[in-house]
Amino acid sequence: MWRRLGLVASVALPAIVLRLTGTALSPELTVLVFGAGVVASAFLLSWAAEAAQVDISGSLAIAILALIAVLPEYAVDLYFSYTAGGDPAYVQYAAANMTGSNRLLIGIGWPLVAFVGFWAVRRQRQHAAAEPGLRIAAADHEPAVVLPVRNRVELAFLAVASAYAFVIPLTRTVAWYDAVVLLALFGAYLWRVTREGRGEPELIGVAADIALLPQRRRRFLVTGLFVAAAAIVVMAAKPFADGLVASGDSLGIDKFLLVQWLAPLSSEAPELIVATIFAWRLRAAEGLGMLLSAKVNQWTLLVGSLWVAYSLGGGHGAPLPLDDRQTEEFFLTSAQALLAFAVLADRRFGLREAVAIFGLFIIQFPFPMTDVRLAFSGIYIVVALALLAYRRRHLRAIFASFGRWEPPSRARP
Question: Which domains does the chain have, with CATH numbers?
Fold first, then answer.
C-alpha cells in the first residue's frame, strides 16, 4: 500500500512544484506533467472514497463521496465552462470534455469490462478442466454480464436523463432550466440509491489495505488523501486545460479533439482500471454496475453543472451557447446513451452487444465530419428504438424501481 501511495505521490509532485514556482514549460510538457497530476489525484480520490465507506454511512456520506470522487473528471470541463463566461474563445471547448468522457465510458469502458470478464471466465473454466473435483456451471450459448436487479435504479435514471438530453442539441444551448432538471435528477438519484440496503463494502487493492488499518490511522489517512487529491486537481486543472489548447496550435492537431479525448482519458483511467480488476476477479457485474452509475452521474451532474460554471465565470445567467460542432457532438452522445440504455434494458450485456458498442465507437474516429456524426446518431437511435420495442416487457420493471426500495434490514443483492 505505502509503495503505491508513494509512487502516485511522486507522479503528482512535479505538477505541484511547477505550479507553486510558476515555472513555464512548453505546451506539450505542460500537458504531460499536469495531466499526470490529474491522473494521480484521480487515483488518490478513488482509493480514499472507497476506503471511507468503512467508517461513513448514510445519505449525506454517499452524496459527499459521489461529489468528491468525480472532481478530477469534471475539473477540466468546468474550467472551460467557467472561462468561457468571460472569454468567448473558450465556448467551443465547454462541452467537448463532457461529450468525450460520456462516449468513452460507454464505447470503451463497458466493452472492456465485458471482454475482460469473458476472458476471466474462460480462463477459470480451462483451469477447472485441469483440476479434478472443481466444477463450474456450464457456459451460456453467448457469454453475458448479467446485472443484479438493484441496477434497475441506474437504468431508470439513465433513461430519463438520456431522453431529456435531446432537448439540449435541439435548443443549441445549455440553459438554466437544463441545469435545474439535470441537477434535480442527480439529487433524486442520490436520494433513491440511499434508500437501498447497503451491505459491507467489497474493497480491492490499496483501498482494502487502508480499510484494514486501525480506525484512527485509517480516518487520518483517508482525510489526508482527500485533501491532498483535491489540492492537486485544483492546481493541475487550469495548466492542463490551457496546455491542451496550446498543444493543438503548436502541433497542428485539432484542439477540440485534444480537449474531447485526452482529458477524459486521464480522469477516467482509475475508474476503468478498478472496473477491469473487478471483471478479472470474476465480478464483471459489479464493474459494469460501477460504470453504469458513473454514466448516470456524468449525464446529470456534469451536464447540469456546465451552465452553473459558465454563469459564475461571467455568463451572468445567460445560456451556454453550442456551436454547430458541439451541437452535433451532443446529439451523437445523446443517441449513444439511448442505445446504451436499450442494450441494458434486459440487464444483460452480451458478447455481440459489447462488440457492437465498441465497433460503433471506434470506427467513427477516422471520419470526424458532420455527415458521419449525423449518420452514426441515426444508427444509434434506430437500433435503440428497435431494441426497446423488442425488450418492452422489461421497461415496466425498470421504471417501477423509481418508487421501490429495500430497507437496510432486508437488503437483497
Answer: 2-401 (1.20.1420.30)
